[in-house]
Specification:
The protein has 304 residues and is an alpha+beta fold. The chain has a single domain, classed as GSPII I/J protein-like (Pantoate--beta-alanine Ligase, Chain: A,domain 2). Helix content is 42%, strand content 18%. The protein contains eight helices and eleven strands. The protein has a five-stranded antiparallel sheet. A two-stranded parallel sheet has the order 3-6. A hairpin with a 2-residue loop joins strand 4 and strand 5. Helix 2 packs across helix 3, helix 2 packs antiparallel against helix 6 and helix 6 packs across helix 7. The longest helix is centred in the N-terminal third of the chain and has 66 residues. The termini are far apart.
């Protein structure tokens, strides 16, 4: 073999060795990626299982609370946030929110028909929050059973079918507050501002005066200003309302209320749970409804 041929042979041999090294490295990287993905899948499956455990924790806490008393307020154990608890290679955290401390948007409609009283109260809430009053009409149209458009911001099928991605008005109660994204006028900014003060429950509900914000109390109690509602909440922080009479006696002079609209207890709660394990994170939401006995039932749940 002449020198030129030897040179070519050496180059080819070196190329083969280089290709083999590259292939080996690629295989090792693929194996490493597959192993990591498998680990993440296992971690995520464990996190999902712990989400359910967190929801069951919320159900147990609420069941014990109902067994002990029929008054719900923000100094009770259920209202305390669960501090991050260490689990194998991660942590679990969660908390419970009273959904009857918020304005139930589905109260706007009763038996398929718009409630003028509740519509006015929702308008007051929108005003307190600095949001357009026209949003009340668009939401009422979304929920009510007919296809008759409300004036000043209302929207029925004709409006939604004219959109670039058309769809029909629901004409039924909201399942979740997230559904507001489909309703005319409820932009990201509007939903962010409104979100802490509203809920979407499957039945018409009273407001729990022990957990409602000043904004909600001012909206649902005729003649109660926001400043007066804030003063009432400050009183409540010192001593919760024991019953309807106790609450009524602490109202400013001249303010009257309807017993059926206000209570000192709740049945609907939202459990929020977050779990991290290794490199995986899972979050869970569950709407719970509590009966007089037994664990609360799960109305709906969302696990991510």
């Amino acid at each position: 073999m002449n020198p030129a041929q030897r040179g070519v042979a050496i180059v080819m041999a070196m190329s083969v060795v280089a290709l083999a090294a590259i292939a080996t490295t690629a295989m090792m990287m693929t194996q490493s990626t597959w192993t990591r993905e498998s680990e993440l899948e296992v971690d995520h499956a464990q996190a999902q299982a712990l989400i359910q455990a967190g929801v069951d924790w919320a159900r147990a806490v609420l069941s014990d609370d109902r067994r002990l008393n029929n008054v719900d307020h923000l100094k009770e154990p259920w209202a305390l946030r669960l501090p991050p608890m260490p689990v194998d290679n991660g942590e679990l955290a969660g908390y419970i929110e009273d959904q009857q401390g918020a304005f139930n948007l589905n109260n706007l409609v009763l038996g398929g028909k718009i409630s003028a009283v509740q519509l006015d109260r929702f308008r007051r809430l929108l005003s307190v929050l600095g949001l357009p009053a026209t949003l009340a009409n668009s939401l009422a149209d979304w929920i009510d059973a007919d296809n008759e458009q409300q004036p000043n911001g209302g929207a029925e099928d004709e409006y939604y079918l004219s959109l670039q991605s058309p769809y029909l008005a629901a004409n039924r109660p909201l399942t979740d507050v997230a559904e507001l994204a489909l309703v005319r006028g409820f932009s990201d900014e509007v939903r962010a501002r409104l979100g802490p003060f509203v809920s979407a429950l499957p039945v018409n509900t009273a407001v729990n005066v022990n957990t409602a914000s000043p904004e909600v109390l001012s909206a649902v109690i005729d003649g109660l200003s926001l400043d007066a509602a804030r003063a009432l909440v400050a009183q409540r922080d010192r001593a919760y309302f024991r019953d309807y009479t106790d609450f009524s006696n602490r109202l400013p002079h001249g303010v009257e209320i309807a017993n059926s609209d206000l209570k000192v207890s709740s049945n609907y709660f939202l459990a929020r749970v977050r779990v991290t394990i290794g490199g995986a994170e899972a979050r869970g939401l569950a709407l719970l409804v509590r009966a007089d006995i037994g664990w609360p039932a799960i109305v709906w749940r969302k696990y991510q």
